Amino acid sequence: MQYFIQQLINGLTLGSLYGLIAIGYTMVYGIVGMINFAHGDIFMVGAFIALIVFLILAALFYSVPVVVALLVMMIVAMLFTALYNWVIEKVAYRPLRGSFRLAPLITAIGMSITLSNFVQVTQGPRNKPIPPMISEVYNIYGVSISLKQIVIFVVTAVLLAIFSYLVNKTSLGRAQRACEQDQKMAALLGIDVDRTISITFIIGAALAAVAGTLFLMYYGVVVFSDGFVPGVKAFTAAVLGGIGSIPGAVIGGLLIGLIESLWSAYFSIDYKDVAAFSILAIVLIFLPSGILGRPEVEKV
Amino acid sequence: MTGKTLLDIRGVHTFYGNIQALNGVDVTVNDGEIVALIGANGAGKSTLMMTIFGAPRARSGKIVFAGTDITQLPTHEIARLRIAQSPEGRRIFPRMTVLENLQMGASLDKMKHFDEDVEKVFVLFPRLKERIDQRGGTLSGGEQQMLSIGRALMARPKLLLLDEPSLGLAPLVVKQIFDAIRELNRTQGLTVFLVEQNAFGALKLATRGYVMVNGNVTMSGTGKQLLADPDVRAAYLEGGRH
To answer: Which fold would CATH assign to domain B1-82+158-242?
Structure first.
C-alpha cells in the first residue's frame, strides 16, 4: 500500500509538469488550430534559462535563500521564454496563418529543431547539472515525500489558480476565448486578434518556463535534447484530455504522469512510454475527442 | 434631426476570390438616420455590411466613417471607432454564457457602463435575463438574434449595423425589435443601417432606403417613396418576381 501511494505521489509530480506544458499546446491549438511542436523545446529553453540564472546567482552571491533563488529563476525564465515564443509566433507562424494547414506544422517542427540545435551549440551538448537546491525528505507512515515534490505541487496549484482566474474572469481571458470561438466576430467587437494570439503564446511559454524551472530543480540536470520527450508526453496529455480544453490538459498531464510511474513501478520501466501511448490510443478509440474535448462538429 | 454624413460608401467593389460581390456601391448614412438596405438573397447586402469592417476588404472605392477613411483599417480598429454589428448568422460565441457574450460587446466601451447598459438590454429583451447563465450555443435562434443585437448595443455604438434583425424571429418579437430600434433612434439619436429581407417592415421603419440587385444599388429614396414605388412593390413587397 505504501508502495502504491509512493508511486502515486511520484506520478502526480511528473504529471504536474506535463500538465503545465500541456496547457501551452492546448491553448495554441484552441486559438490558431495548429500544434506548436516547438513547445517542448520552449520548455527546455525555460529550463536552461533557469540554469543560467542559477549559475549567475551562485557566482554573484555567497548564499541566497532557496525560495528567493527559485522565485528569481522562475520569473526570469518566464520572461525570457515568453520572449522566445513571442518572437517565434511573429516570425515563423504569423506569416503562414491562412495558408494550408500543413505549412505551420512543418514550420513548427523546424522551430523545434532550430531551438534544440541553438541550445546545443551555445550551451554545449553535455548534461548540465546543478547542485541539489532542496534535499529535505519527509517520511509519513512509510511513504516518503520530498520537499521538492511539495514545491512542485504548490507552485503548480498556485499557478493553475491564477491562470484559471485569468482565463475565466478577466477581459483578457474573455477576449482569448472569444478569439478561440470566432475570430471574425471578436474582431468586429474591437478585439485585436493578432495581439490576443501573441498573448496566448506568451502565457503558454511562461507556464512551460515554470515547468522547466521545476524540472531542473527536481532532476538537477538538463540537456539540450530534453525538450523532445517531455514535449511529446505533454502533447499526448493535451490530446488525451481533449485538445483545446484547458482543464483537459491538466487532467491529461496528471494521467500520463500516473500511468508512467505506476507502470514503471509494477511492470517494466523500459516500457513506460509504450504504456502511456497505448493508453492514449485506447482512450482515443472510445473517446475520439479526448476526455474533456468537444466533438469538432458543432450545431449552428 | 438628421445631420451630417456619418458613413459614406463610394464606388465600392468587393470580390470573393474572382467572384465580384459588390459592383461599385454608393451608400450614404447620415447622423441620426435609420437606413434600410433591401434586396433579394445573394444581392450583396451582407457583403456590404462586412466590407464596411474590411472583412472582406474593398478592392476599390472608399469608405469614410465620421471623417476617417476606414477603407484600409484593420477590422478591430474600425470597430473601435464605435461601429457595432449584429452580423449575418448572429455569430454568438457558442461556449460563452449570455452574460459573457454581452461583456464581449461591452469591451469596446471598456466595460465602463456595463451594469447600466446590461439593464437596458434586459428591459429590451427580458428573455435574455432568464437565460443569463446559459451558453450562447444552446439558445434558440430567436434568442440568439436578441443576444446578437443586445451585444452590439453594449458597445454604445455611433453606428449600429443590423444584418437581418428579423430573421428567425416570431412576428411579435420582430415588431418588438423594430419598435426598440425606432425608440433608440428617437431618444438617443442612434444611427442605424440595416439589411432586411422583410422589406415592408424595414422600409416602414427607415428614414431612407436603398434597393440592391446583383451587387448594385439600383434605387434609393425615402422609406415612403420606396414603399410606394411600383417596382419595389412588385419585387419585394407583393412576392412578385423573386
So the answer is: Rossmann fold (3.40.50)
CB burial readout A150-177, b (16+ within 10 A) else e = ebbeebbeebbeebeeebeeeeebbbbb
d(CA B6, CA B70): 12
Q: Which of these, A180, A196, A184, lies nearest to B54 by C-alpha position? A: A184
Give the start-to-end residue ranges of the domains of chain A: 2-226
Burial of A72 (0-12, 13-18, 19+ CB in 10 A): middle
Interface test with B, best of A169, A188, A197 (most B CBs within 10 A): A188
Specify the residue for cell string 493535451: A238
pLDDT per position as a tens digit, A228-265:
999 999 999 999 999 888 999 999 999 999 999 999 98
In chain B, which residue ranges form alpha helices assigned H by DSSP? Answer: 45-52, 75-80, 98-106, 114-124, 126-130, 141-153, 171-188, 199-205, 223-228, 230-232
A186 touches chain B (CB under 8 A): yes
Query: pLDDT, tens digit, for every residue of B133-148?
Result: 999 999 988 899 999 9
Neighbours of B115 (CB within 10 A): 8
Please count the residue pairs, one from chain A and one from chain B, whose beta carbons lie less than 8 angstroms apart.
71
Average per-residue pLDDT for chain B: 91
Give the whole-angstrom CA distance, residue B203 versus residue B156.
24
d(CA A53, CA B9): 58
For residue B130 the three cell numbers come to 432568464
Q: What's the whole-model pTM score? A: 0.90
Partners of B111 on chain A (C-beta within 8 Å) are: 171
> What value, to the nearest 5°, has the Cα angle with vertex A229 and ends A226 and A233?
135
β-pairing verdict for B208-213 and B34-39: parallel
C-alpha to C-alpha distance for B86 and B210, rounded to whole angstroms: 19
Q: Do A190 and B108 touch (CB under 8 A)?
A: yes
Closest CA to B214 of B3, B7, B14: B14
Q: Do B79 and A188 touch (CB under 8 A)?
A: yes
- How many CA atoms, within 13 angstroms, populate the side-chain half-sphere of residue B4? 4
Q: How far apart, in whole angstroms, are the C-alpha atoms of residue A289 and residue A298?
A: 13
Q: CB A278: neighbour CB atoms within 10 A? A: 13
Q: How is chain B split into domains, by residue range? A: 1-82+158-242, 89-156
Asked if A178 and B96 come within 8 Å (Cβ–Cβ), the reply is yes
Three-state DSSP class for A242? coil
Taking residues B187-203, what's their average pLDDT?
A: 91
Coil, helix or strand at residue B85:
strand
Question: Which cell numbers in the block locate residue B189?
Answer: 439619436
